[in-house]
Amino acid sequence: MAATHHNARPEGTFLSAVADHAQIDETSSNNLNEQDPLLPLSSPRDEASTASENGLLWLMGPALLAGIFVKAFDIAFLATSYSRLASDLQHFKDASWVMLTASICSAIFVPVYSYFLAYHGIKRMMFIAYGSFAFGLTLCTISTSFWQLLGSRFVVGFGSSGITLLSMIVINEIVGVKQLAIWESFVTCIEMGTSMAAGPLGAWMYRSFGWHSAFLLEVLFAVTGVVVLHWSFKKIACHARYSQSTLLKHGDPSQLPSHADGGGWLLLILAVTTPLVAFTLGDNILRWTDPLEVALLILGPLFMVTFVVYELKIASFPVIDMTPIFTKKYLSVLFQVFGVISILNSIVFIIPPYIQVRAFGGPSFEDWALTCVFLGFPIGAISGGYLIKNNILPVQRIMLANAMALGACCSLFAMRLIKPEVAQHAPLLVVFGISTGLWQSCLLYATLSSTEKKWWPQTLALYYLIETFGADLGMALMSTITRSVAKIGIRSSLGDSKTTERIILDAMRDLKSVRRLNAGARTAVLVAFENGMHTAFFVPCSLAAMVIILAAAMNIKHLDKNPERSDNEAITPTN
């Protein structure tokens, strides 16, 4: 058996320098302040170096914003148009995979960037991420079939995972953990501002010129991002005061471990993909009672547990060091990350087809519904960042109040009181966006605050892994429940016959096929799909209940342990 790694230095897991920094600065780390960076600086942080690093942020800012912008545009375009795109490619029943493919790849490859960062440096890894993203979008532009598009989205996911992780590392390297909330709010504003425009613009380009035109525009944006990234690093290299910046470090590829953690990578891939494949195959290609389907449903959780145990106890050079996970506070926050992101993506995922079904053949609010959600998101993110930065309210209180607001929104969706196809309900969609935006600011700060400073790199990598997996699982569950309940409803209304099965098959491929049916059959199919989507709202409602319980438990525990603390004192990072 290989040596147990969790008692050794975290060399080769994210940044070897973090361990050195933690040992050299062990005394000062016990007096952590809001300016402590995620990556070690080359010299002590005094006023001059702080000003220098702020200048560095201005130089890196255009490159970071370019990557964030094109990624947000891509997500917003697909979120608005993925169901129509899959329908046009004769794969309406597999529409979720247009979104899931890139997201699954992103979850798998986040640890890849964190693993190789110490050996190749931020600069090289950022060029790999931006270049892969641009190449993947180019493949999307020339795709002619559903399966070619999915392969292209896999490459896009590889690039997008690096853009997300490396952007937050660079920002936190410069501003520190407590300032991270307000800067993340700024990033969120850029993302959501882009999303508000990208959804309607992409939908208009799709209708006017075809879906390839939207991807072509994204390619132009992505290539521009690569050029801006090159310009940013060239400018930084021209300034002598930045010569020792971590951003310019090339790493040392010769220090790569001779034996990669192949078992860990394999288990990670299986843990992420098996549950999603199982839900996709269920009642689609395989019956739920099929032995293979049952085996996949059982193996999914087993692979997750095995991955954690393997990385913790066996792997010499683990993909992600699992040491900081097993504390109650960290696990509580991690489950809330999973729950909130699953809720957000479940509802955002279901809104476009939901509107398509409810407003079939008539005018609707389809192009603008998600824009309303995206409008509320930066408002919530900025508010949360401001509250955290200025210690106006404890993070636990913000999270509990927001959990109840999020639960109320999910309940209103499930009870059909929020009708996203109606423009008059736009304010309710904005409120939902505000609630999820508040969570965006709270969760990352709460996650870093629940672990020791030396584990922040591993914590950040795991945060994005759980975030992406939660989003994928939420979308897969919504798709599976909708599909299964819709089939049951159609068979119940139209009877069991070959004609009914043909109607189901055609509707699952292309919802527009129901136009060929008589009025009674068309209504039965649309009602079945609508009921299936409402049944699927059980998923976000259940997750909201879990998040409320966890947030309440955090507040109770906080009050029991700190009865003398004032209400205005927020959580500070663990040292």
UniProtKB/TrEMBL annotation:
Record membrane topology: Multi-pass membrane protein
Keyword flag Hydrolase: no
Entry-linked InterPro entries: MFS, MFS_dom, MFS_trans_sf
Subcellular location(s) of the protein: Endomembrane system
Membrane-spanning segments: 55-77, 97-116, 128-148, 154-175, 182-205, 211-233, 264-282, 294-312, 333-356, 368-388, 400-418, 424-448, 460-481, 536-556
Record keywords: Membrane, Transmembrane, Transmembrane helix, Transport
Pfam families registered for this protein in UniProt: MFS_1
Primary location recorded for the protein, binned into one broad class: membrane
Domain called Major facilitator superfamily (MFS) profile: residue spans: 60-559
The keyword Zinc-finger is annotated on this UniProt entry: no
Superkingdom, natural source: Eukaryota
Alphabetized PANTHER family for the sequence: MAJOR FACILITATOR SUPERFAMILY, VACUOLAR BASIC AMINO ACID TRANSPORTER 4
Protein name: Major facilitator superfamily (MFS) profile domain-containing protein
